[in-house]
Specification:
Radius of gyration of chain B: 18 Å
Number of domains of chain B: 1
Structural class of chain B: alpha/beta
Radius of gyration of chain A: 16 Å
Largest sheet of chain A: none
Number of strands of chain A: 0
Number of helices of chain B: 10
Distance between the termini of chain B: 16 Å
CATH topology of chain B: Rossmann fold
Helix content of chain B: 25-40%
Order of helices and strands of chain A: HHHHHH
Strand order of the largest sheet of chain B: 1-3-2-4-5-8-9
Order of helices and strands of chain B: EEHEHHEHEHEHEHEHEHH
Strand content of chain A: under 5%
Shape of chain A: globular
Largest sheet of chain B: 7 strands, mixed
Oligomer: heterodimer
Largest interface: A-B, 29 and 23 residues
CATH architecture of chain B: 3-Layer(aba) Sandwich
C-alpha cells in the first residue's frame, strides 16, 4: 500500500505541472458534467445551486483551457510537436459542441461533451505511460 | 405561447395609428400594459403579444431562438401594416432591440420608441463572475445555467419590487431567472442588430435609466450614434432602473413617448372623442 502511494507520488512529481493540472481538471469536469446530467438537471427549482454549480464548472473549464495551452506550448518547445497540435483541438471542441447544441438535444450533446473530455483524459494519461 | 397575457387596446372608431409594443426578456405583456393604456388614451390603437417562450414556464424559454422572437414580431407587424396607415413600434429591453431590428428591414416603420435597449449586458447588478459568461454562453453549459433574478428586480421603487417579486414566484408574468440560453440568443440577436443599425431610418426615441441595473446607457448611446435615422432623441432618466415602464418615472416615460409619436404623426387626434372605454377596449388578458 505504502509502495503504491509512493509510486503515485513519484509519478505526480515527475509530471510536468501543466499535464498534472490538465488531468485533474479533466477528471473533475467529467465528474461535474455527470453529476449535472444525472442528478442536478432533474431539479429545475434549484436555480441558485445550479448557478453556483455552473460557475464551478466554468472555473474548471478555464483551468482546463489554460492547462491545455500551457501543456501544448511546453510540448512544442520540448520537441513533442504532435501533442502541441492535438491538444489545442480540445480547446475548441466545447465551443463547437455548444454551437450545435439545442435544449431539445441537451442530453445528447452533454454526452458528446463528456466523451471528448474522456478522450482528452485518455490522451493525457497515455503520455504518463510513455 | 401564453395568449392569455396578450392585449389589444382598440378604439371603436377606425383609428389610423397603431403602436405595436414588445415586452422585455423573461417578461410578458403585463409589464407593457400601463404604457399601452396611456397610448390608447392618446388615440393610438395598441397591441402587445407574448414573445415565443415567454409567459408560461422557465423551461419553454430555453427552447426558443432569436429567430422565433423576430419572426413572430414581424408577423404581428405585417398584420398591422395591412390595417393601419401608421404603425409605430415600441419595446422594452429585448423588445427595444426587436423594434430596431424590424425597422432595419422594413422602411415603412413610422417611428420607434426604444426603452432600456439591451445591446450589452453591463448593468450594475450583473454578477462579479460575469467574465465567465463567454464560457457559459458558448458551451453546452448555457442549458444548465440561469442567472437568478434578485433585488432590485429592475425597479428603484421599493413598493413595486415586492409586487414583482411575488409575480416572479408564479413564473408566468415574469420569470425568476434569466436562463443563459436566453441570454445567448439575446446577445446573438443584439450583435446582428448592431451591425445593421445604420439601416434604421425611422425616427427613434431612446429612453434609458442612468442607473439601469441590467444594461448601462452604453446600449442607448450606441443606437443614438449609429442609427441611420435623421430624427433621434435620447432621454436619460435619473430616478429609475431597468423597468422604466413600471418604475418611479413611468408617467414621464409615457408622456415623452406620446409627445414623440404625436409629433411624428400626420394624424391629428380629435379631442371630442366620446367612446365608451369599457366597450372599446378589447382585451384578452385577465391580469
Amino acid at each position: 500500500m505504502n509502495f503504491e502511494v509512493n509510486y503515485i507520488l513519484k509519478i505526480i512529481n515527475s509530471l510536468p505541472v501543466s499535464l498534472a493540472v490538465l488531468i485533474v481538471s479533466n477528471i473533475l469536469l467529467i465528474v461535474g458534467f455527470l453529476i449535472g446530467k444525472i442528478v442536478l438537471y432533474k431539479n429545475e427549482n434549484a436555480i441558485k445551486f445550479f448557478a453556483r454549480f455552473s460557475v464551478a464548472i466554468c472555473t474548471l473549464f478555464v483551468i482546463y483551457f489554460v492547462s491545455i495551452l500551457w501543456f501544448s506550448i511546453s510540448s512544442f518547445f520540448f520537441g513533442n510537436s504532435v501533442y502541441s497540435v492535438i491538444f489545442p483541438v480540445f480547446l475548441f471542441l466545447p465551443f463547437v459542441i455548444g454551437y450545435f447544441a439545442s435544449y431539445e438535444k441537451v442530453h445528447f450533446y452533454t454526452n458528446i461533451q463528456i466523451l471528448t473530455l474522456i478522450i482528452s483524459l485518455l490522451l493525457a494519461l497515455s503520455i504518463i505511460q510513455r | 405561447m401564453a395568449k392569455s397575457l396578450d392585449f389589444e387596446f382598440k378604439h371603436e372608431k377606425k383609428c389610423a395609428r397603431a403602436v405595436l409594443l414588445f415586452h422585455g426578456m423573461t417578461g410578458s405583456p403585463y409589464e407593457m400594459k400601463k404604457m399601452g393604456r396611456a397610448l390608447y388614451d392618446a388615440d393610438f390603437d395598441v397591441f402587445c403579444y407574448c414573445l415565443p417562450g415567454h409567459g408560461t414556464s422557465p423551461v419553454n424559454i430555453k427552447t426558443v431562438r432569436w429567430q422565433d422572437w423576430y419572426t413572430d414580431s414581424v408577423n404581428h407587424y405585417k398584420e398591422l401594416i395591412k390595417e393601419y396607415k401608421e404603425v409605430y413600434l415600441g419595446g422594452l429591453c429585448l423588445g427595444g432591440v426587436l423594434a430596431l431590428a424590424i425597422a432595419e428591414e422594413y422602411e415603412d416603420v413610422r417611428g420607434i420608441v426604444s426603452l432600456s435597449t439591451t445591446l450589452f449586458l453591463d448593468g450594475w447588478t450583473i454578477p462579479w463572475y460575469n467574465f465567465f459568461m463567454p464560457i457559459g454562453v458558448c458551451t453546452i453549459l448555457r442549458y444548465y445555467y440561469s442567472f437568478p433574478e434578485r433585488e432590485p428586480y429592475g425597479l428603484k421603487n421599493a413598493v413595486l419590487r415586492k409586487k414583482i417579486a411575488a409575480l416572479q414566484k408564479r413564473n408566468t408574468e415574469a420569470l425568476d431567472n434569466y436562463p443563459m440560453s436566453c441570454i445567448y440568443e439575446l446577445l446573438k440577436f443584439s450583435k446582428i442588430t448592431q451591425k445593421n443599425m445604420f439601416k434604421v431610418k425611422a425616427p427613434i426615441l431612446l429612453i434609458h435609466a442612468k442607473e439601469d441595473d441590467l444594461t448601462s446607457t452604453k446600449s442607448a448611446k450606441f443606437v443614438y450614434k449609429n442609427a441611420g435615422s435623421k430624427i433621434k432623441e435620447y432621454i436619460e432618466l435619473e430616478n429609475s432602473y431597468h423597468l422604466v415602464v413600471m418604475d418611479n418615472q413611468r408617467d414621464f416615460v409615457f408622456k415623452k413617448s406620446i409627445d414623440f409619436l404625436n409629433n411624428l404623426s400626420a394624424y391629428v387626434p380629435e379631442k371630442t372623442d366620446t367612446f365608451d372605454r369599457n366597450n372599446a377596449v378589447k382585451e384578452s388578458s385577465g391580469v
